[in-house]
Amino acid sequence: MTDFMTDSRHDLIASDRVEGTAVYNRQGEHLGKIDNFMVEKRSGQVRYATLSFGGFLGIGNDHYPLPWSILTYDTDKGGYVIDLDKQVLDNAPRYAADARPDYDEAFGRNVYQYYGVVYPW
Amino acid sequence: MTDFMTDSRHDLIASDRVEGTAVYNRQGEHLGKIDNFMVEKRSGQVRYATLSFGGFLGIGNDHYPLPWSILTYDTDKGGYVIDLDKQVLDNAPRYAADARPDYDEAFGRNVYQYYGVVYPW
């Protein structure tokens, strides 16, 4: 990921550089990686980034939707940092890779509330 | 791309389903494909989608930043449709794949102006 900065112009980041990026917490524990992220089609607003971990060779791992706003990119770590104890993920909203749910309003509010973020839509 | 709808929940679309999607104009001409898109990190706002075409096996093709808002997904075509004559791309802002420019404000205003879209930031 040494070329990360070449794809990070000013305040912008390329979509394909977000995908696959490692996620850590403030204690430096590796939580997983960003699998992909969900964009509101009409407005172009990113609503969720999906953290994935576990499973074997990416098979069977769970996906954890996170509010985009809780992710901060850390150039030293070469990944995103979120202020989150690992245990918080134990009960977090998640779904199996092959069972992506309806991202409806109830789902969205639940995700945002779980991470203590106001659901702004 | 038959599974497109399974990754398109309500008004949301997954980032990795945008990448690689074909782009047509209203005359049905194939213009290229979406290579990736650029997200404003802090706000999570998508600013540009990058159309690429030309080259050989993806090598040497030019990248054309487009305002996200001019893309409309057409389920019948299985791709994005933009209201654009092919010739308009002849003089459009572009860059070589290995020479991504600074996406600064002047660059952004130029791109948006070229496609007749107000630069809203």
From TrEMBL, chains A, B:
Coiled coil: none annotated. Residues 12-87 form the PRC-barrel domain. It comes from the Bacteria. It holds the Pfam family PRC. InterPro entries: PRC-brl_dom, PRC_barrel-like_sf. Signal peptide: none annotated. PANTHER family: BLR1072 PROTEIN (PTHR36505). This is Photosystem reaction center subunit H.
